[in-house]
Amino acid sequence: MRKIPFLLFLLPTALFADEVFLKGAGSISGRVVEQTDTMVTVDIGGGAISVSMSHVDHIVMARTDLDEYDERMSRLGPRDVFGWRDLARWASQHRMGNQARQAYEWVLALEPGDREARGALGFALLDGDWVTQEEAYRTRGFVKYEGEWMMPSEAQLRLDSAAAEQASQEAERSVRAAELEKLKAEVQAAYAAEAAADAEWRAEGAAWFYSQIYNWSGCGYGRTTWMGAPGFQRRSWRAR
Prior knowledge:
five-stranded antiparallel beta sheet; about 20% strand; 8 helices; alpha+beta; 9 strands; Serine Threonine Protein Phosphatase 5, Tetratricopeptide repeat; 3 domains; elongated
């Protein structure tokens, strides 16, 4: 059901007359080919969509282009090549791909060399023989690259361009990775230097502190001498 709004956008709204209105999701235009208490199936010309009746608000039935196609086809004789060709054209004009193909295939069954039908069905004339378009392209030296037929030289140019672009992107990624590694190394070195300086400062502070305790306790000059000794300098802790 999530895909239905997108499908509705693609459908030619003027082609069909049956309308299946959905609850809060627009409508489906086509020919209702089957309806039960639980499901409704709509032929939209290029295929069929089945929808649960629980999602259907209401259905408006009317004559459709598919009905017109069936009626036109019913009036044709089995060997009326002109009639089948006209029907195929009519279906093509109304963008009914499956029906147009069906009519053109009937034309080919009657006239295997019919150019219009061969062309419409994807055949190409090569050296007097009808072949598929793929066979025609390959025979003329074309190759298929990314869904498009082209000469090998053009395909090679595109390959080279894609390879150069990929190499450029990889080089750019390598430069960014190297810059990142350099930055990480600089940060780690800065942290290591700071940690070393901090450890040195702590060691110096501890040595000075214990030396003063030693002197103050009487093992050195004594408290009075220590506090008033010439050259005594009070040391302050460095802010971290």
